[in-house]
Amino acid sequence: MLKIDDVTMQFGGVVAVNGFTAQIDEGQIVGLIGPNGAGKTTVFNVITGVYSPTKGRILYGPDLNEDITGKRSDQITNLGICRTFQNIRLFKELSVMDNVFIGNHLRLKSGLLSSLLRLPHYRKEEAEAYEKASYLLKKVGLYEEREEKAYSLPYGMQRRLEIARALATEPKLLLLDEPAAGMNPQETQDLMEFIVEIKDEFNLTIFLIEHHMDFVMGICEHIYVLDHGMMISQGNPSQVQTDQRVIEAYLGVE
Amino acid sequence: MKDKKVLKYLILIIVSLVVLAILNNVLDSYQRRIVNLCAVYIILGLSMNLVNGFTGLFSLGQAGFMAVGAYTVSILTMTRQMKEMNFYMKPMMPFLLNLSSLNISFLPAYVNDFIWFLFALLMGGILAALFGLLVGAPVLKLTDDYLAIATLGFSEIIRIVIINLQTVTNGALGLKGIPVKTHLLWSWSIAILTIVFISLLMKGSYGKAFKAIREDEIAAKSMGINLFKHKVMSFSLGSFFAGVGGGLLAVSIGTIDPTLFKFALTFNILLIVVIGGMGNIWGTVASAIVVTIAMEALRFLDEPMNLGFMKTDALPGLRMVVFSLILMLVIIFKKDNALKANFERIRGRYAKN
What we know:
The complex is a heterodimer. By secondary structure, chain A is an alpha/beta fold. Chain A has ten helices and ten strands. Chain A has a six-stranded mixed beta sheet, with helices on both faces. In chain A, helix 7 links the parallel strand 7 and strand 8. The radius of gyration of chain A is 19 Å and the shape is globular. The termini of chain A are far apart. In chain A, 44% of the residues are buried. Chain B is globular, with a radius of gyration of 22 Å. The relative contact order of chain B is 0.17. In chain B, a hairpin with a 4-residue loop joins strand 1 and strand 2.
């Protein structure tokens, strides 16, 4: 599904990610963990085209035959990779419904003119988009709040709205950047169930960054651990948990 | 229910057209000109709001695009004799001089005139949009103040080019004797069309994508919105309406020259947009009408005044000070809903006591 091949991202003298290699197979939930400043979000930014990597390649597709290195963000989203953000980036002044509706814009086939003249095929597409958005909002439990402005929602709801908006772009690979940040244990538990549910329903592959260890260990099949831009460990949850280097990176060494 | 809403708007449009038709007969020519200007400023305000308010691009090139529209419409509609009279310093380019209006023999003259004028207006808009496309492609990579500077500079470039292209535009002498269209229905039906156009645009998926770009560019592109394409789209549409507005301005005042399209004109429109509210269609319409009328009504401020205890000299430009003050107040109080917050604080204080 996705192969990150020896990717290095350098900002001036700072090497944020150093020779990171990872592979994500279709239908997996893969985690990316590491202490603060380890370069996790940079990995996401490189995958989604916010930065183009200093070195290395990113391959995508069922047979990994699409080289998406250095493509524009919108092109990458068009190919089926969508993300959420660590510090929520909603369209704040727009309604909850519009936030999700906009997620569908890239799937729109009608041109500007037919949208202006509200031609039948545009209206049909628009109605379908609203239907899809309503469905997704019900899914994340925000349908009642659809008329509210996005910024007025409480934090947890904003996180869920971001996921709904990403789902509206019809992704195959969903990147979640700290989806459980700021959530209490019960909310985290609900989120885990929710992620598994949407994964099954929409046939998603999920790559996520998270600090809640219960969350990562409970949900991920495979985990990569980054520290200072270098991958220090990988494997299934129990392997990673017992890896001495991971414990050292998190707890420090005597 | 949806049809009811459409019906309501249709009735509103018809009523306003009837009112305007009546007003056209009641008002004198001076008042008619002001009402016409209101419509022109509605179009210009909406065009700027589309770019600045809805898409969040800080563009100050309005006057340049208006100039393109105004000159196009004037050159297309002026009669050959008028052009010859105007171009006494340097003769006009023969091609433009010989441009004659539509003449389909079996149609009555006023129908020919009507179609030709619409065509001229459309050409004005399209040419301005083309310029918008040309300018937009390189400068829309810039953001915020940089975009403002680039577009402002561009607008000045257009003005300088107009001054120097004597064989096309008659240079600094300007164009006089443009056939005027002072009937209120002309400008107002186009203003209404613009309102409908912008409303439909903002209601649809493209308009919402524009708003998404305004809200958060990074999130917008992560949602698969091609930033460049949508920005250019919005910018060109904005330029189109600026061109149409400029064309209407030319035919409602009858003379144009390069000094008309200085930055002050962009400032006037910016004033309307800010007072009416960034990204607010009806607010822009209301503020265009209020500001245009106020600009005329406050003319007494520019003249010598007798305050009873003292007499002041004529202070040309004093009325603009009023607008500057209004602008400052609006910006101070409207930002982050400061006005509302202050009211609540005051209410809270009294509630405590």
